Amino acid sequence: MKKKIIIIVVCLVVYLLMGAMLPFIYHPKISKETEEDVQNTQFINEEVTDERAYVIVDNGEALEERIRMISQAKNNIVMSTFEMRSDESGKKVLAALYSAAVRGVHVQCILDGSTELLNMKGNEYFYALSTLENVEIRIYNPISLLRPWSIMGRLHDKYLIVDEELYILGGRNTYDYFLGDQPGYKNYDWDVLVYNQEKRERDSMNQLLSYFNNIWNLPENKVFGKDGKLRKKKSVKLATEEIKELYYDMQQQNPDWFEPMDYVEKTKPVNHIQLISNPITYYSKEPIAYYTITELMKSAKEEVVFHTPYIICNDWMLGRLTEVSDTVPKVTMLTNSVANNGNPFGAVDYLKNKPELLDTGIQILEYDGGISYHGKCFVIDHNLSAIGSFNWDMRSAYIDTELMLVIDSEEINKDLRQAMASYEEEALVVIDEENYILPEGVVPQEITKKRERRIRVLKIFGKPFRFLM
């Protein structure tokens, strides 16, 4: 009997592992249609448009601006996020969404299936929001062991839209690592806020709304937390009272968060904004976002600078990066050092494949500042800038949904360059696989013994599974 149980368990593990991995081993190639679409996509414009933008650098401001936008909403709110937790900042966002729904605003939220499984199921704070009449929450690719072949496909987008005239898009998830000034572990990241009262046929708001509606209406999505009995549960009632009180406390303690913002004064003029996106299927994707980004970089006349938390490339991706380096006079990448990287798989892969990255010809900077850098952005020459969710790894290229917002604006480019420089000035300049130029006063972190042990273990599994990390 014991032998049969072991066999069944082993078969189940193999079923889940092979079912989850095999569909993603194949990496689709770029089609002629995509090549033509990218070639015909407009990224620059000669004249200033009605849209305006500014870069949100600080985690505290990122939370403040989300609360302000939601508190000022009159008609509708759309929110998409990869991960959301009911920690301090997560509850504040839930409280603001709850208040908006109570006053009659239509709220639509779409979250990834991994967040539903890990953070939302059985969570009374999410139920306090989801059971409201004006609220619809849908789950992208809900995780099911009966469908292991779809488990790896994840929704990695992060954006908030209010009244179809204002949105934030970037790389920040909705919890304490990314939002707010509370003490504890943090990640540094970026958002861009876009404002436009004039709804034009080709503006970026319409691009983003169209993208959202396509994902929202996927038939495989699951509705979350609409059972009317949930609202009667004591724990949900208590959670409801807690977030109502939290919203009141925010109003008392941070009244400026709830004051209307003059977004014309706050933002900078732009000539054009273009959304870059991956396909929205749950399964292996044509690497449209990566191809578009690298093709756009190849158009640079002077310089490309890009930031990514980690970089995990196959041969095709490395080849594209080499093409950028061969075409553009100066190409610089900033990524986390091995000691500073919050993604252990990314740290191990970088340690192993650093020579191949150097062979592409790019200048590598390693951020080693003690707090994991999660920023995903790039600048091209002095007019194009981009912020979004795309990491330079195979998962972002072939598996996840991803968004990058490309902005044609010399002023936004200047602002983003200055903000990026604050990380670059503290970074280690890579000379070769083992040697660096160190900024004055900077002492590199030592890799802890715990991380060394983790690296040794992950080296064993890293290579065959690197396309999933």
Structural overview:
With 469 residues, the chain is of the alpha+beta class. 40% of the residues lie in helices and 19% in strands. The chain is built from 15 helices and 20 strands. The protein has helices at residues 2-21, 32-40, 59-72, 88-102, 113-120, 124-130, 204-216, 234-253, 263-266, 288-298, 315-327, 344-359, 394-398, 410-424, 449-465, and strands at residues 52-56, 76-81, 106-112, 135-140, 159-162, 166-170, 191-195, 222-223, 268-269, 272-277, 303-307, 311-312, 330-336, 363-367, 377-380, 384-388, 392-393, 403-408, 428-430, 436-437. The strands form three sheets. It has a nine-stranded mixed β-sheet, with helices on both faces. Strands 10-18-16-15-11-13-14-19-20 form a nine-stranded mixed β-sheet, with helices on both faces. A two-stranded parallel ribbon has the order 12-17. β13, α12 and β14 (363-367) form a beta-alpha-beta unit. α4 runs parallel beside α6 and α10 runs parallel beside α11. The radius of gyration is 22 Å and the shape is globular. The chain starts with a helix and ends with a helix.
**Spatial ordering of strands, largest sheet:** 8-4-3-2-5-6-7-1-9
The tally of beta strands, per DSSP, is 20
For the biggest sheet, the summary is: 9 strands, mixed
Helix and strand content put the structural class at: alpha+beta
Give the end-to-end Cα distance, rounded to a whole number of Å.
37 Å
Our estimate of the beta-strand percent is: 15-25%
User: What's the number of helices?
Assistant: 15
**Mean of pLDDT:** 93
Query: Which spans have pLDDT < 50 for at least 5 consecutive residues?
Result: none
Categorize the overall geometry: globular
C-alpha Rg (nearest Å): 22 Å
Helix content: 25-40%
